[in-house]
Each structure stands twice: as structure tokens, then as C-alpha cells.
């Protein structure tokens, strides 16, 4: 059983993280320190970093239930402490907000 769930989890993560559409930022080799402010929920640079490095792969109700809302990966990255039941609503707000601020919100066509 663990074998099956391990593959399911790996594939779920792959669909959101290991795709060519997302950005793969690289650190400045002259400054390899961890910037704690990137982890702050109030720092706007955190959102600017998270949005282009995550991809939602569908807004389907089935996949939301089947993956524990991990198909709403951008909302998950920005609001990890929020109950996953709110992710579909947050996702629509995020898409509008990203459009307003010129950020690319990545979700492939169905």
C-alpha cells in the first residue's frame, strides 16, 4: 500500500513542480545566504518568487478531492496554513490578482 501511495504522491508533486513552464530561479553565487524575509508571509517578494515557480494543473473538482487540493499548487505555496477547502476560491482570487500585477499564473489548458 505504501508503494502505491508513494507513487501517487510523487506524480502529484511532479505535475506541479517538474514542468518546463515554471521558472527555476538560481541563487546569486556571490550571495548564497538564505534570506529569511523570503519566508515571511508579509514580504511581497515571497509572492513574486512563489507564483512563477509553481503550476496548478487543473481546477477540476475531482482532482481537488483526489489530490487533497494539491492541484491548486500556487495557493498551497502562498498559503500553506490555510485549509485546503478554501484553495479553489483562493485560486480564482490569485488569478485575478496576478493579472492585475502582471504576474504569470501558470495553469495549462485542459
From TrEMBL:
Keyword annotations from UniProtKB, A to Z: Signal
GO terms under biological process: lipid biosynthetic process
GO annotation, cellular component aspect: membrane
Domain Fatty acid desaturase intervals: 7-106
Top-level taxon in the UniProt lineage: Eukaryota
Signal sequence range: 1-20
Chloroplast is among the record's keywords: no
Keyword Secreted among record annotations: no
Pfam families named among the record's database cross-references: FA_desaturase
GO MF, one example: oxidoreductase activity, acting on paired donors, with oxidation of a pair of donors resulting in the reduction of molecular oxygen to two molecules of water
PANTHER family: DELTA(5) FATTY ACID DESATURASE C-RELATED, FATTY ACID DESATURASE 2
Protein name in UniProt: Acyl-lipid (8-3)-desaturase
Amino acid at each position: 500500500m505504501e508503494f502505491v501511495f508513494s507513487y501517487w504522491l510523487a506524480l502529484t508533486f511532479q505535475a506541479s513542480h517538474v514542468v518546463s513552464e515554471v521558472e527555476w530561479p538560481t541563487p546569486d553565487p556571490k550571495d548564497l545566504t538564505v534570506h529569511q524575509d523570503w519566508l515571511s508571509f508579509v514580504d511581497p517578494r515571497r509572492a513574486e518568487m512563489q507564483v512563477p515557480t509553481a503550476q496548478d494543473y487543473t481546477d477540476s473538482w475531482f482532482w481537488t478531492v483526489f489530490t487533497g487540493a494539491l492541484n491548486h499548487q500556487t495557493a498551497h505555496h502562498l498559503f500553506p496554513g490555510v485549509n485546503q477547502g478554501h484553495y479553489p476560491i483562493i485560486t480564482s482570487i490569485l488569478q485575478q490578482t496576478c493579472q492585475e500585477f502582471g504576474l504569470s499564473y501558470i495553469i495549462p489548458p485542459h
